[in-house]
Write a structure and sequence with these properties.
heterodimer, A: about 500 residues, alpha/beta, Rossmann fold, 2 domains, six-stranded mixed sheet, 17 helices, 22 strands, about 25% strand, B: about 325 residues, globular
Chain lengths: ~500, ~325
């Protein structure tokens, strides 16, 4: 029996950026009907490999074959011509154009004009075939994240893709939307297409793929059939190269309420305003906030951080009402903050790490005396944090922006944890972090919990919410749809609430 | 008072408005193409000045007005390519590059003019474009003399506006160009050559600015003077914003500006009103500022305007 001709074969791919060997002798084979899971920590070389396949980089060594024939892919146009389609993690769409216009970009017209009629017909065919339906005349800016992703996939199919690369496609989807995506991917595989699926979410990789390829430090470390005996723990170990034990979350009796919101509402122009938010977090408790992004989570975080004023209701820390919340007041009361936009309101990327890490407290002892900075104290503090948290940085004076995402997050955590906060507010704390860095962040949260602090965890990653939370609150359009104790929560129930359905149970 | 109004709002007044609007329409549509592709072309003032000089000189020596226009467009295209080199290939600040191109082109225009013509006591002149009356249409009362008795370039400007809208919104090239100006990564991912598209837009923009400059020295006037552009390029930058990046609205803005400009010219020439003429000169510019303040609140520039595009680099 002869093996079928691979749809795609990448052989001996090597790519070097300066001193970093991003890919070394990488082989990848994709048969028709395969859904390949591509796993690896950040910096393992997955993205480089996919960018080589899509023509963004050219490889230093190795070759690419499609349908058994060698091909040269120098740019994205060539990749598309060879039937390679890529759905990027950050969508490549124009919000101000319609669905149809987004599909027509880069395509030849008919007699010099945009061929909207034919495109609309194709869109309908694809919609029927793969259950990927979209209205051609809607503005992309008005689509939900799930619909935008559907459009990205349609775009790839539209330009004749037979090999579809998806880079972290489920990061912002509800579980139901993710299931819809998986159905579409299975339908494509059944048609003889090949799918390459990159994700940090191991349970999804387990659920959808037929094969798994694991990369580490630019090399392939494993190629496995996705069989039932392959465990998530095993995959995680292959990725980071050492054994991982699940974090300990012992049973715990929560103490006094540290953070309380009563009937809180906001009234800010152009924002998703909060309405009737009542919640409390007790000492030794982690409250998870689940929801599709843009449903008021950011506003909730800003309220607790004192950055967004309440129009109604009240906010209390450790039993005492806070009449005039401000960032300074909340910080003084012991609210630590890990913001969603690490590089925006988190660390100042253009400043040295040392300045960035002491900025919120730079006006007070020990960092300044009589209005003059104490450089020695700052340096000592930052060096101690670098040491304690294992931050990979070339000393305290390096520009913060040069750190990797995981190390930036460690620096932020270090900055907030150094003052032993009563309440830690963490928004999307592990977004874009790899397994190892995620583990580290989670351990810090559980440590706070063990020391009777309160953690408000806002995350779009349901697995993270379920792993860490004692209770889960689901937000939808600025309201809390319900708060479930972890024992009563399951993904389906939370997913329905995320989509705005009142809890049935 | 009635006498003053009657004197101002003659048929000639509206014909003058159309004439004044013509170079503004050319340059504004040119700027609009560049900005829709994501590049603010602040070289506009200098490109218009250099083209006015080049067009005039080419016509002066060749005796052919259309050769002059072609030369002016070529100067504009070359300036557009220079703008592309600075902002697209080198990815420099678009503000600084644009001001640089304007300074370079202005200096070049004055320098070359001196080199070619020296410092004559009477500036050399050419036989400028003559109005072409369109048969039948120009004989319609009122409308005929206002719309259909103009320089050929005026008619070209009329055609340019719908043509520009058609190209932008109905052709693949127009869609690619708009995508490059909104999200170059999306365009690149769809196989569009972002750099080439921006170069093309800048070259087209330069060519149209070239026509605008040449119109001033070869149709509106019949000689090149150092003040021939006098800020019209900057007005066009404002008109693009005023027009919210739509060819139709931008052309409407140009007509409005021209209306006020024509009005102030008449008021200056009017002896009944005793006000320093500089006050009238100021009027169209004051209106531009007021109009901008009112409209630009809702204006949404192309999302990638001012942003150089680089493929993801490590």
């Amino acid at each position: 029996m002869s093996a079928p001709t691979p749809l795609l074969a990448m052989r001996g791919i090597g790519k070097r950026f300066g001193a970093v060997q991003a890919n070394r002798d990488v082989d990848l084979t994709l048969l028709p009907g395969d859904i390949l899971g591509l796993l690896g920590e950040n910096g393992a070389g997955k993205t480089t490999l996919m960018n080589i396949l899509f023509g963004t980089y050219s490889p230093d060594e190795g070759r690419i074959e499609i349908d058994g024939r060698p091909v040269e892919i120098h740019n994205s146009a060539a990749a598309i011509a060879h039937g390679v389609g890529m759905v990027h993690q950050h969508f490549h769409l124009v919000p101000r154009h319609t669905v149809l216009e987004n599909l027509l970009v880069g395509r030849k017209g008919r007699r010099g004009l945009l061929d909207k009629a034919a495109a609309a017909k194709r869109l309908e065919e694809i919609g029927r075939h793969f259950q990927l339906v979209l209205d051609p005349d809607r503005l992309v800016g008005e689509l939900t994240i799930g619909e935008q992703q559907r459009l990205e996939i349609i775009k790839a199919l539209f330009s004749g893709a037979r090999i579809l690369i998806l880079d972290e496609p489920t990061a912002a989807l509800t579980p139901q939307e993710a299931d819809g995506l998986f159905d579409a991917l299975r339908a494509m595989a059944a048609e003889g297409m090949g799918v390459i699926f990159i994700s940090h979410k191991l349970h999804e990789v387990r659920a959808i793929t037929s094969h798994v390829m694991v990369m580490r430090l630019g090399e392939v470390v494993a190629n496995l059939e996705n069989a039932p005996e392959v465990s998530q723990a095993h995959l995680a170990e292959l990725m980071c190269g050492h054994e991982l034990t699940p974090p300990l979350k012992p049973e715990k009796q929560p103490g006094r309420p540290l953070l309380q919101l009563r009937d809180a509402a906001t009234d800010a122009a152009g924002r998703t305003n909060l309405a009737d938010i009542s919640l409390e977090i007790r000492a030794g408790e982690i409250l998870g906030i689940a929801g599709v992004s843009g449903n008021g989570q950011r506003e909730l975080a800003e309220v607790v951080a004192g950055m967004l004023p309440l129009s109604a209701g009240s906010l209390a820390i450790d039993g005492a009402a806070v009449p005039q919340p401000s960032a300074t007041v909340m910080q003084a009361l012991g609210v630590g903050r890990i913001p969603e936009d690490r590089m925006g309101t988190g660390l100042i990327t253009s400043l040295p790490l040392s300045d960035s890490m002491v900025l919120p407290r730079i006006g007070a002892a020990p960092f300044s005396r009589h209005g003059i900075l104490d450089r020695h104290a700052i340096r000592a503090f930052v060096e101690a944090q670098i040491e304690r948290f294992g931050i990979k940085a070339d000393g305290p004076e390096i520009r913060a922006g040069t750190l990797s995402g995981g190390n930036l997050q460690k620096a932020l955590l270090a900055r907030e944890l150094a003052w032993d906060p009563l309440v830690l507010l963490a928004a999307q704390p592990t977004r874009g972090l790899d397994v190892g860095a995620t583990r580290f962040v989670h351990e810090q949260f559980l440590d706070l919990r063990a020391r009777d602090r309160a953690v408000l965890l806002i995350s779009e990653d349901l697995e993270e919410i379920f792993t860490l939370s004692d209770r889960i609150a689901v937000m939808y359009e600025g309201r809390i749809m319900g708060i479930l104790p972890i024992a009563e929560a399951d993904v389906r129930r939370v997913g329905l609430m995320m989509a705005g359905m009142a809890d049935a149970a | 008072m009635d006498e003053i109004l009657a004197q101002i709002f003659q048929i000639g007044f509206f014909a003058a408005m159309i004439r004044i609007a013509t170079p503004l329409i050319f340059a504004t549509i040119g700027e609009l193409f560049a900005e829709r592709a994501g590049v603010l072309n602040l070289g506009i003032e200098g490109i218009m000045l250099l083209s006015a000089m080049v067009g005039f000189s080419a016509a002066y020596f060749s005796g052919s007005l259309w050769f002059g226009i072609a030369a002016a467009m070529a100067a504009g295209v070359l300036s557009g390519m220079l703008m592309g080199l600075l902002t697209v290939t080198l990815g420099l600040s678009q503000h600084v590059s644009g001001i640089g191109v304007t300074l370079l082109n202005s200096g070049l225009a004055f320098f070359l003019y001196r080199l070619i013509f020296g410092q004559p006591s009477m500036p050399p002149n050419i036989v400028a474009f003559k109005p072409v009356a369109i048969p039948l249409l120009s004989e319609i009362p009122v409308i005929g003399p206002i719309l259909f008795n103009h320089h050929a370039l005026v008619y070209a400007a009329f055609i340019l506006v719908p043509l520009a809208a058609f190209i932008l919104f109905r052709t693949p090239w127009g869609l690619n160009l708009r995508t490059v100006g909104e999200n170059p990564h999306a365009a690149d991912g769809a196989g569009v050559n972002v750099a080439a598209t921006r170069y093309q837009a800048l070259m087209l923009s330069g060519a149209l600015m070239g026509v605008a400059g040449a119109f001033l020295s070869m149709a509106q006037f019949n000689a090149f003077t150092f003040g021939v552009i006098s800020g019209r390029g900057w007005v066009c930058i404002a008109l693009v914003v005023f027009g919210q990046w739509s060819p139709w609205r931008a052309a409407g803005g140009a007509l409005l500006f021209a209306l006020i400009d024509a009005l102030q010219l008449r008021l200056q020439a009017n002896s009944y009103i005793d006000v320093p003429y500089q006050v009238f000169l100021m009027m169209p510019f004051v209106l531009t500022i007021v109009g901008m303040a009112l409209v630009s609140r809702n204006a949404r520039a192309p999302a990638a305007l001012l942003m150089p595009f680089r493929k993801e680099e490590r």
